Sequence to fold (336 residues):
Amino acid sequence: MFEILRELCCLDATSGNEDAVKNYIIEKIAPYCEYRVDNLGNIIAFKKGEKTPEKRLVIDAHMDEVGLIITSVTDGGFLKFKTVGGIDTAVLMSRKVMINGEIPGVITAKPIHLLEKEEAKKLPKADSLCIDIGANSKDAAQEKISLGDRAVIASDYIEAGDKILSKALDDRIGCAVLITLLKEDSEYDFYATFSVQEEVGLRGARTAVFAVNPDSAIVVEATTAADIADVPSEKRVCVQGEGAVISFMDNATVYDRKYYNAALNSGIKCQPKSAVAGGNNSGAIHLNREGVRTVSVSVPCRYIHSASSVADKGDIKSVLDMVRELKNGILGGKYD
Fold:
């Protein structure tokens, strides 16, 4: 699974531009299941199991990552951009980027010795930043790029002991888990959706799940871990090394209580998410048609939405074990 994760994280796939990840996933799952791609680019897969359950389950992970989109070019050849998804300005300043997977650049930042006293006290607005690709004029820049081109912050995939450092762990971890489950034999039939455009408003999951029309859903995600220096324990949200994170509520969903309790009582290493914050594709999925019973299983991830996100291998294994356990329990009627 970790080799799959490495290959996924090394691909670039900002929201609405997920083709590289989509094509990779199709290549990996095609021998093991039926699949189709809908009009938005979601992969909707069906895994035939040993038994056909009475209820229909979908397991979802999103393919897209946060990034940048080029919106204009200055007369001096610098590229103006907007963020695609939520990115803190502090993550952007002076960082190397890769445009269209081949054009390197760096995000500009005013030299500190030129900052006015008041400027030095606060972060600049993202709108004031540009990308420098070494072009000395607008025409020179436009020979290399077009408006609407995408960029991601350049990053290496690094394994340091039990930790993984990379961009796009949100949510390539979920994609790697789903690929692994689809390659395994399954006791029950189930659906898997690799959805698009989660980072810009949960859009892909809305259409993919409408097509599947499930009774229940498991959303596999990465969630913010604030277990770092100087953060009080009550504000850490979740802790790396303590296993899969199970949410009882976030800003988009109140999760199914039976599924939540089943996860905590499963015997698999896990922890409740100790904050009502954020949201994920559950926000769209649980409102589908007549309603979908939903549970979220996440990997605690430090520095999320940056090029240097950090996850723990043991937590990722716990997420895989938990999703497998919940899948079989839901489809076997254990939590009805």
